[in-house]
Amino acid sequence: MIQLRSLTFSRADKRLVKNATLQIHAGWKVGVTGANGCGKSTLFALLRGDHHPDHGDLEWPVTWRIAHVAQETPAVDTPAIEYVLDGNTELRRLERALAEAERAHDGIRIAELHEALAAIDGYAARAHAAEILDGLGFSPAAQQRPVATFSGGWRMRLNLARALAADAELLLLDEPTNHLDLEMRDALTRALQEAEVAVVLVSHDRYLLRATADAFVLVADGRVVPFDGDLDDYANWLAQRRQTHRAPTVADRSAKAQRIADRAAQKAAQAEQRRLEKAAAKWEAEIETLTAALHAVEARLADPALYSDRAAADAVAREADALRAQIAEAETQWLEAQTALEALTLASE
């Protein structure tokens, strides 16, 4: 279990969160929501051990291993599958110890290490890594290619595969669907659904969050708290919050404007707000249109007569899949616009 106790942390001398208290239990898959700049990335840095709190405690079991997706990939000659397996540090430690024991002809130690490997399912680790790589688009031949031969986007997939294959107790994922196409996003979703590991996930991908997150944590207003609801509830919360921030009178806004020294920056912020509001409205209308179209297609799929023509039925099914993918993308774009509006509102206060 991860525990935050009266945790306060800052970044670049700016306090982001104060006196946060939270628990995340083993096996939970938690989506982290909140505006950009509110402290989500810093919270991840704390969990990785790359940042330290100002006050309070952050605790988890000493036996827990933590995996995350690295943002850079070394241009090494290591084959892709070996690079992915290197992320399982316990597996590699036992393999090195076993090789040393075999060189020393230490039969007792060899037997102990084989038992230890069996206990962590180490003999299936290579097949598991190959399965993950296959799901992320790496053919058997590609799995043997050196890491250095892959482009940047494919190297990010290797980092994702490495994190998924690490056999860690806690997996940290920050926008993991970047660089992934729709098919790969589906593969990642299935992998996370099947993973028996605690996951803390930051993503604007609503489909991924809906399909994998059991609970949500909200980072906002200097707090880290459980969010009692789903993504639709969060979207409503954002809309209501923006209405609240619009409540001040014209006089109040004028008085505040007079305190802003950089008028040009204020105008730019207002222009950006209008752009984001138009984008949010556009995507909301798009979602409504696509959803209506999907309902019509699903009605056709529910008609038994359709299946007298297999080819026609398959075409309608593909049309439904395409509409679902378009809705997922539109929802992602809408939520990104709403979140950006929230960040803009907080920055102007």
E-strand count: 9
Order of helices and strands: EEEHEEHHHHHEHEHEEHHHH
Write down the Rg: 24 Å
> Structural class per helix/strand content?
alpha/beta
Largest sheet: 6 strands, mixed
Mean pLDDT: 81
Give the end-to-end Cα distance, rounded to a whole number of Å.
Answer: 36 Å
Low-confidence stretches: none
Beta-strand percent range: 15-25%
Q: Tally the helices.
A: 12
Helical amount: 40-55%
User: Can you list the strand order of the major beta sheet?
Assistant: 5-6-7-3-8-9
Query: Which outline best applies?
Result: globular
Chain-wise SSE layout:
Elements: E1 2-11, E2 14-24, E3 29-33, H1 40-48, E4 55-59, E5 66-68, H2 80-85, H3 89-103, H4 107-119, H5 125-135, H6 152-164, E6 170-174, H7 182-194, E7 198-202, H8 206-212, E8 215-220, E9 223-227, H9 231-245, H10 250-258, H11 263-301, H12 310-348
Parallel strand pairs: 3-7, 3-8, 5-6, 6-7
Antiparallel strand pairs: 1-2, 1-4, 8-9
